């Protein structure tokens, strides 16, 4: 131990005497470690973290798929994104069956799935303050008990709060209590109006508890008992509909229970429940219900939508950061090789005086590890800043929040330290071994000469050249990947969306949260359009359920009148008459929806061009009839027009548009619930060419003139909408470009160092050449040729690696081939130019060698 301490002190003194070398080495390693640690911070937070609950290893989830939205019917799994016949979501009725009939669960909790939160308007009872918005999540009465959570203030739910007829109560998250309520202790026990319904806040959840799911938006602010769902949802309630699966289930399994046995038991219970509903099934469901399968999966990490959304991007960025670390370590190894060769005289003396090769290797390794420790310390600072940058790029929007902490945790700090030690050993072992192989007689004989021959020099130069080749190849892979991803993002943002985005703005509203009833909506939207069109610079305004590129569209399986078989699926939405002209969506056949289409006229629809071609081929679709399944609805809507295709977020797919002013009646509760919900339009599109000044302020004023309580979520230009829609692609492209730039700089520095060292070692040779008549141009060409021989080999290897990387990221590319010659050649040219810049300075220095001085030294 005393020897180890002595060697460590010696290493610190040596580094202190070489501040330039130490600074470059530490900063180089810090960039590599920092980039890798920043990505690993996200890996740990998004992919590996358990819920902050008691004994998460005892939690098991029924189901293994992650859903964003509810499922309808008695079969689940679509066979494409989700495994066919894979059952993961549950109705309230099915949850009660599993909870009451499965004693293997000490507790079994249910909570609302995915991002399908209850959007709430919140105001303290009796207050005249503006209405605030919050995300509500319905949970079972034993939700907090299942996770072992205690209240920060007040109390949490009990089963008695989740019984029909119980007084409506709610629990507030700690974050929203701080942000919106200013940590006011009087909130507990106070009455609040949630969507106009009286609720009592009975408690505040503890800090750090964000629920049982992890998402980058719509995290719950308020928890509500499941049985209060009809109170909030009204006619659109899902609670008592056994066909609607909208709950995730996680339970705490008793210690003596075998999960495999429990899984088989749960599948039997599922089939028994499905069998009891066979009379209500469709013909297709009757064929498939017995094939439904159920899996029991570990639930300690909860249900993570972020993991499903970002896992591919995070692993891709982790590989890119690892490439940066590899280039950085190659630079460190080069620095250590040069340093070791310059100190070969001291090394030779030590060997001559009796130092063993093991002692010399230990000294070199300790110096390398000392650099690694300092590099990891600086790297943690870079990692913290990098993780915050990634969150900023990935999670956009002023009101968006995700439970991800960019501060490196203890596991992340251990990761940074571990990776630093590993790199210190891995890339310090070669210089240490070469130093220990020094021949004392040869080194002492050549100690005062600028040229040192011998095997140690040849080994060092060969190792340096190999490292430069590796750096060049890895840098080319990163640069080409950055080029492909950047071009892909450019293609995505500038693709043809079917309408002109310039001059179009999006206003987000929520009539439901403002207390509007179904019969009030038609006059409301007419008044909204009139008020908005009165703003100077605004030409048109039109309402839509969910605007293009801003959300989702509801899919429907449809029937065409006169055809016996089901035709396929189509998206649909609801609009006001001004929508098509406002958006610039051209009517290519027939007419658009107009003011004449009202509650007293026949139900009509406008379809898009893809719908017309898929379902009618070369037939004229005008006057044809269709409707959602089942077959009896085939004559429900009459087609009066065909609009050009517009991308609503899933590419150019069949779409049909229904008037806001018309309603139809459905027999089944599910279709009726969607029919009612579809009239609460969430967006108004504004056509305002020329960017009118103060548009958002004027829109707020116009809506306030209609109703001060009408909630508005803001005004966005469509360029901002598109940018937000491609936030993940922007993050990947930006960070890959950043990593590629860092790798390019490090590779250029490495080539500069090797070339400079080579020139120094060949001073006598260059002097002799010039004494014998070589001119400066030939010497310059000789040095550059040697430098580019290494770069050339690296480029050849890098092109193969870049093509492989292109196939690896193919799912992230749009309009770019993994072997795109423009991207590969562009990246190679950039790298070659950087290499030329790095090699020119040492090459010019070689041409300034005085032949007489060089020979005199020998």
Structure report:
With 858 residues, the protein is of the alpha+beta class. The chain is built from 25 helices and 28 strands. The protein is 49% helix and 16% strand. The relative contact order is 0.11. A hairpin with a 7-residue loop joins β5 (118-124) and β6. The longest helix is centred in the middle third of the chain and has 39 residues, at 455-493. The strands form 7 sheets. Strands 5-6-12-8-10-9 form a 6-stranded mixed β-barrel. Strands 20-21-26-23-25-24 form a 6-stranded mixed β-barrel. The model has no long low-confidence stretch (mean pLDDT 85). The chain starts with a helix and ends with a helix. The protein is globular and about 105 Å long.
Low-confidence stretches: none
* First-last Cα distance: 45 Å
Strand order of the largest sheet: 5-6-12-8-10-9
Number of helices: 25
How much β-strand is present in the residues?
15-25%
| Mean pLDDT metric | 85
Please provide the count of β strands: 28
Largest sheet: 6 strands, mixed, barrel
List the keywords:
globular, single chain, 49% helix, 6-stranded mixed β-barrel, 858 residues, 25 helices, alpha+beta
Q: How are the secondary structure elements laid out?
A:
Elements: H1 2-17, H2 19-48, E1 59-62, E2 71-72, E3 86-87, H3 92-101, E4 105-112, E5 118-124, E6 132-139, H4 143-146, E7 153-154, E8 169-172, H5 174-179, E9 191-194, E10 197-204, E11 213-214, E12 222-225, H6 229-233, E13 244-245, E14 247-253, H7 259-276, H8 283-288, E15 293-294, E16 296-298, E17 303-304, H9 305-342, H10 344-352, H11 357-394, H12 410-436, H13 440-445, H14 455-493, E18 504-509, H15 521-533, E19 540-544, E20 554-560, E21 568-575, H16 579-583, E22 587-590, E23 604-608, H17 609-616, E24 625-628, E25 637-643, E26 655-659, H18 669-677, E27 683-687, H19 695-706, E28 712-717, H20 718-725, H21 727-761, H22 763-771, H23 776-808, H24 821-847, H25 851-857
Parallel strand pairs: 3-15, 6-12, 8-10, 11-17, 21-26, 23-25
Antiparallel strand pairs: 1-14, 1-16, 2-13, 4-14, 5-6, 5-9, 7-10, 8-12, 9-10, 18-27, 18-28, 19-27, 20-21, 20-24, 22-25, 23-26, 24-25
Helix pairs in contact: 1-11, 2-9, 2-11, 2-12, 3-7, 9-12, 9-14, 9-21, 11-12, 12-14, 14-21, 14-23, 14-24, 15-19, 21-24, 22-25, 23-24
